[in-house]
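Chapter summary example: a protein plus zinc ion.
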Amino acid sequence: MTWKIFGHDGAVNYLKRQCEPGNMRHAYLITGPEGIGRLTLAKAFVKALNCQNPPAKHDFCNACQACRQIEAEAWPDLTILRPTENARDIKIDQVRQMQQSLALAPYQSQWRVVIIPDFQNATVAASNALLKSLEEPPARAIIILTADARENLLETIASRCGILRLRPMSVGAVARVLQSELNLDEDDAKMIAHLAGGRVGTAIHFAQNPDLFEQYHDTLAQLHEILPETKRARLQYAEGVSKRKGSQRENISTLLSVWLTFWRDVMIAHSGADLPIVNLVQRDVVKTVAGQLSLPQIESILKAHEKGLEQIDANVNSRLVLENILLNIPRLKV
Ligand SMILES: [Zn+2]
C-alpha cells in the first residue's frame, strides 16, 4: 500500500487494477460520509495515472510536476467541478461547459479527468445533463463523482459508474494513523479520532487546525456552564446563541454535535463499561454528571440531541430545537 490512503485498501487496489490497459471505465462513483477521504482518493487515482516518476507500477511519487499540479488542482487535464460561489449545487450550465471541454483530446496525458464532488447536491437538470456523458462517453475521458450515498443519486447515473464505497475506520486505527503520520501523542490521537468518528480526513483536519479544537473545548465549556442553570438562564443562553454571527442553523448544529459526544461519554461512564471516552480531558465532569442521572434520563437526552440534529437538517427552526433540548435536561451539578 503506497498511495498514502488509510483504511481504504480495497478501494486502492480496485483503482490500481483500473490502471491496467483495457480496464479503465469512463465513470466512477466514490461514496462515503464527508471527511472520509473521497476527494483524496480521487486525486490519488489521477496521480497514479499521470505520475512522471512512479516509485512502483500504478503508484505515484507525490513530488513530480504532475503530482504537484494534480494536488494543487492545476493539472491541465484535470477539472474539479464545484458549485459556483454562493451556490449550493452544480448547475446545468456548468455540466454543459464541462462536456464541451471533455470532448477535446487531453493536453498532455492519456486521460482527461473530471471530478465532481458531492454530486448528491447537483440539480436534477444537471444530473440529467451529465447522464448524456455517461451514456455516450467521450474517448479518453474519465468522470469521477463523489457522493454521500449511492441512493442519493439517480440510479441511471450510479448504475453506469464503477462504485467504490468508503467506510469509516475503527477509532483505534485512525488514532494510529495520527500517531504515525502526525506524531501526535496517544491521548491526543485517541481524542481526535473519536471526535472524527473514524473519518480519517476529518481527524487529520482537526489535528492540523488547533483553532477547531479550541472551539470544540469552548463549546463543551458552554454546556457545562448552563447545566446547573435555571430554565430562564438556559433560554437566555439559547437566545444568545441564535444571535451569533454566521448561519444560525450551522452554529446550533455544530453545538449539538459536540454536545452529543459529551452525552455519549456520560452514557458510557454511567454503564461502567470500560469503553474509551471521547472527552478525555473532561473525564471528571463526565463522571459527576453521570452520577446524577438515571439511564433512561441519559438515553432521553441523547435521543433529544440526535432528533434535534435531524430536525435542523429538515429545516425546523434551530433556536426552538435548542431551547427544547435545554429545557428538558435536569439541573445538574458539574
Ligand atoms: Zn509523481
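Key point: The chain has a mean pLDDT of 90.
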